[in-house]
Each structure stands twice: as structure tokens, then as C-alpha cells.
Design goal:
alpha+beta; 8 helices; 6 strands
């Protein structure tokens, strides 16, 4: 085999590693730093809210828990938010609006991002290990190599933080995103499921320690959650 051909192949691999692997490693390490700032903001926010709520009603449970380096949990009233940093770096599909921004078209590498997912669960779902209960992804936070960020989410989470070309993540934005996520969860009501959905239970469910632990509970049925998006678009 021609040595020049072999060397060219190695050069291409090294160039690709330098361009992509090094970039992704940088974004991943930066993502861990960003997530550390989110955890600090969440902890401080919950401590402040807990102090203020104690003077109003100290029976309302509020806490912050660091589950791991890449996951944190906060509880406020009957709601839990789980913030989770994904272990991979992602880019957007070429049809996505972010990929078609002049800012990204000027430098394709700007589209690579670390991703933080924000999930909303009922506190009792986790407390009582109700394995059939449903949590909702309410936001995804994308942060690129230059700390430009974009939040994909419901209601205010979907339209307050969508200027990827100009918004650069800082402590103020981190605080605002955390507060927006909590406000959305508080406004995301638990509704009674349709009677036909719960009128039957199995013997296994009856013999379980808690019947509720075997029944699916969610804040809203699917069609109502989709209606939120429709309401969003009409605003």
C-alpha cells in the first residue's frame, strides 16, 4: 500500500480528532462547570425560599439534594424538579431552527452543545415509589462552546431564552431559568384522571401495600399537555 495514502488517512483521522473530539471534550468539561453553577443557584434559591416559607407555613417542604455530580433535585410543596446533565455532547438536526441561524452557519462548531434536562415529578410519586407515575420533561438547556445558550421548553421556558445567537449564559440567566422552571411546575396542575381510566384494578394492585402505588398518576393527560403548546403558539 502506498505510504502517502496511509499517511494521508492518518492525517485525516488526526484532523478529525482535533476538530471534533477535542471540541466535544471542551464542551463536556464546560458543561460540568455550567451544571455546577446551576446546582449552586438551586441550593441558594431553596435555602432562601425555605427561610421565608418558615415564617408563613413551616409545614411546606422545601429542599435541595445533590444526587450526583450530574444530577440535582429540588422539592417545593408537592413538586419535584430533577436537573440532569447528559453525558454526551449533541448537535442539532440540519432542519432545526438553530442550525439555520447565521450565527451557526458561520461556524458549524457553534451548534455543538452540552444538554441539561429538567424533569417535573410529583413529590409523592418518588416518596411512595409509584413506579407507574409519569414525569414530564419541561425544559432542555443547550450550552455551546462559547456559552451561548438556548432553552427548549414549555410556556415561558420556551420563549424567554431562545436567542441563541446573542444570549450568553451567566449567573443572572441561570437564576432566571431555575425560577422559571419552578413557576411553571407550580402552575402545572394535578388533574383528576377520567373515571373510565381508574374504575378497574387488578388483584395484584389490591394486594399491593398501597393501591395508589400501582396506579398511574400524572399532572395532566397527554392531550391537555399538548394543549399547552397550542396555547403557547397562539400567544
Amino acid at each position: 500500500m502506498d505510504n502517502q495514502f496511509v499517511n494521508t488517512g492518518k492525517d485525516l483521522i488526526l484532523n478529525a480528532l482535533q476538530e471534533r473530539a477535542v471540541l466535544k471534550q471542551h464542551i463536556f468539561r464546560q458543561g460540568k462547570d455550567v451544571f455546577a453553577h446551576f446546582k449552586e443557584a438551586l441550593k441558594a434559591l431553596m435555602e432562601e425560599l425555605e427561610d421565608k416559607m418558615d415564617a408563613i407555613d413551616n409545614s411546606v417542604e422545601l429542599y435541595y439534594k445533590e444526587k450526583s455530580e450530574s444530577e440535582a433535585e429540588i422539592k417545593f410543596g408537592g413538586d419535584v424538579l430533577v436537573f440532569s446533565l447528559h453525558s454526551n455532547v449533541f448537535n442539532f438536526d440540519e432542519t432545526h431552527q438553530i442550525s439555520n441561524l447565521p450565527y451557526v452557519r458561520e461556524d458549524y462548531n457553534r451548534g455543538y452543545c452540552s444538554v441539561i434536562h429538567v424533569y417535573n415529578f410529583l413529590g409523592d410519586s418518588l416518596k411512595y415509589n409509584r413506579m407507574h407515575d409519569i414525569g414530564y420533561l419541561i425544559a432542555r438547556i443547550f450550552v455551546n462552546k462559547d456559552l451561548h445558550f438556548y432553552v427548549e421548553g414549555k410556556r415561558q421556558l420556551g420563549f424567554l431564552y431562545n436567542d441563541f445567537s446573542n444570549m450568553v449564559l451567566n449567573e443572572v440567566y441561570i437564576q432566571a431559568i431555575c425560577e422559571s422552571a419552578i413557576l411553571y411546575a407550580l402552575d402545572f396542575d394535578l388533574l383528576v384522571p377520567p373515571y373510565d381510566k381508574v374504575q378497574q384494578i387488578t388483584v395484584q394492585q389490591r394486594l399491593a401495600e398501597h393501591i395508589q402505588a400501582t396506579q398511574t398518576t400524572a399532572k395532566r393527560m397527554g392531550f391537555q399537555f399538548q394543549a399547552d403548546s397550542a396555547t403557547n403558539k397562539s400567544k
